[in-house]
């Protein structure tokens, strides 16, 4: 009889795949269970940015006022759908509680370290000849058109420099020099040279194939319905395709994490933050660097020979409706910054959408459940899950092995809202 330790990873998004990757490296026998086909989650169509620049969580000063101001604009980039849903109300109250300078300053160094660990791990993954996912280490440009956005971003850049990140403030001429093929209609930019980007669709596909080749059993179209527990442990996982058992369970689940947690008698608040993306041509007036259009909150990423344009954050229930008004808002923003890129409104079938798993304090959940001693939770990464996938996966494997952790995780305690 084999005495290899076994783990079940619930959810095959980037967090689940990376957890499986590092668990396998550490000698675990891994099964991934996913209710979909691994292509319909949040981890493929996103903007592909690896973002040490995002050391400020979403729950930050100013976001509450912006959310309220934008609530009544159908093309706005950030939107909270008003509702009496008690889950949304309680999430919103926690968000407001955490959106202050003291909290943001407290968590910034830990978040920076988590991002830098992940970027380092991405560099190592990119060196694996079996994985080719378009990793490019040339940073991200935060482009601004107005004095106000410039002042705010330069303030963030100064904080980033104090935290030791590689960041440069650029005037119009300097940023234009970085994009020689296309005209930029901006006042200036901050170049977060510490950031990087990838083609996430390729990463997800190749990681899946790689894990299969390593012997990972991937069960798709298999929904976790309930947990059998005994003696403070998860004993069994009941799914639409039968019962599974393992020594250890890793609960990911993205925007569906709260329902999964509830099935195990736990409270882990996450609201879905819906966003859209689509691909456009990048042959004429070629864009070289990824960018965030600051006033519009739109992300532009050159990948796989094209450009991915993405944006909006609609906090509300999970649904499959594509709000073309908001897609139009994204489309309208692009030529304001890149005048030669007169983007056409995509066909509805060409619009991808995904649900960012947003925790109320903007920090991920990484750690053991206090209720079930053989359950690790990994989720709630909001707008940074792609970037933080490898670090999260590595930490999951380190927790599983009870070995020393690559970075401190006390701010990410999954039991913090119990
Ligand atoms: C427009 C947009 C742009 C973005 N850009 C970036 C970016 O540039 N950089 C970045 O870092 N992040 C970005 N993000 C965020 C990032 O995509 C997410 O944080 C990340 O994909 C979350 O990964 P996950 O594995 O937690 O969740 P998911 O990818 O959603 O995976 C969760 C999985 O769990 C499965 N699951 C759920 N419930 C069950 C159940 N009961 N039984 C079985 N399986 C279940 C689901 O089927 C799903 O496959 C962006 C998001 C959007 C929407």
TrEMBL record:
The chain crosses the membrane at residues 7-24. Keywords: Membrane, Oxidoreductase, Transmembrane, Transmembrane helix. Residues 7-399 form the FAD dependent oxidoreductase domain. GO terms for molecular function: D-amino-acid dehydrogenase activity. InterPro entries: FAD-dep_OxRdtase (IPR006076), FAD/NAD-bd_sf (IPR036188). Its EC number is 1.4.5.1. It holds the Pfam family DAO. This is D-amino-acid dehydrogenase.
């Amino acid at each position: 009889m084999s005495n290899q330790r076994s783990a079940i990873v619930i959810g095959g998004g980037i967090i689940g795949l990376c957890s499986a990757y590092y668990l396998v490296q550490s000698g675990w026998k891994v099964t991934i269970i996913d209710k979909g086909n691994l292509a319909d989650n949040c981890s493929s169509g996103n903007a592909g940015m690896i973002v040490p620049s995002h050391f400020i969580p979403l729950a930050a000063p100013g976001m509450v006022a912006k959310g309220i101001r934008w609530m009544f604009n159908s093309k706005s980039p950030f939107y909270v759908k008003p509702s009496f849903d008690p889950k949304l109300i309680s999430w919103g109250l926690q968000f407001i509680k955490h959106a202050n300078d003291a909290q943001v300053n407290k968590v910034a160094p830990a978040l920076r370290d988590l991002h830098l660990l992940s970027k380092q791990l991405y560099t190592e993954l990119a060196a694996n000849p079996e994985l080719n996912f378009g990793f490019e280490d040339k940073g991200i440009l935060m482009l601004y058109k107005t004095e106000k956005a410039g002042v705010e971003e330069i303030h963030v850049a100064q904080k980033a420099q104090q935290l030791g990140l590689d960041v440069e403030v650029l005037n119009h001429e300097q940023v234009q020099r970085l994009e020689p093929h296309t005209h930029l209609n901006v006042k200036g930019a901050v170049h977060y040279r510490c950031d990087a980007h990838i083609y996430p669709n390729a990463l997800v596909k190749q990681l899946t194939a790689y894990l299969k080749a390593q012997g990972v059993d991937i069960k798709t179209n298999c929904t976790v319905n309930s947990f059998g527990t005994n003696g403070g442990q998860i004993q069994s996982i009941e799914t639409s395709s039968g019962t599974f058992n393992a020594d250890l369970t890793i609960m990911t689940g993205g925007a569906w994490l709260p329902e999964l947690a509830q099935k195990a008698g736990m409270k882990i608040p996450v609201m879905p933050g819906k966003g859209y993306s689509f691909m456009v041509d990048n042959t004429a007036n070629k864009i070289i660097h990824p960018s965030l259009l600051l006033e519009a909150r739109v992300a532009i990423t050159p990948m796989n020979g094209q450009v991915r344009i993405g944006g909006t954050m609609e906090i509300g229930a999970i649904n499959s409706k594509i709000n073309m008004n908001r897609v139009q808002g994204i489309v309208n923003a692009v030529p304001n910054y890149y005048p030669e890129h007169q983007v056409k409104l995509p066909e509805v079938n060409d619009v991808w959408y995904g649900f960012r798993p947003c925790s109320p304090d903007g920090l991920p959940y990484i750690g053991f459940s206090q209720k079930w001693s053989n359950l690790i939770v990994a989720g709630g990464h909001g707008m940074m899950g792609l970037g933080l996938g490898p670090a999260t996966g590595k930490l999951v494997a380190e927790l599983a092995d009870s070995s020393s952790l690559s970075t401190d995780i006390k701010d990410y305690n999954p039991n913090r809202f119990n």
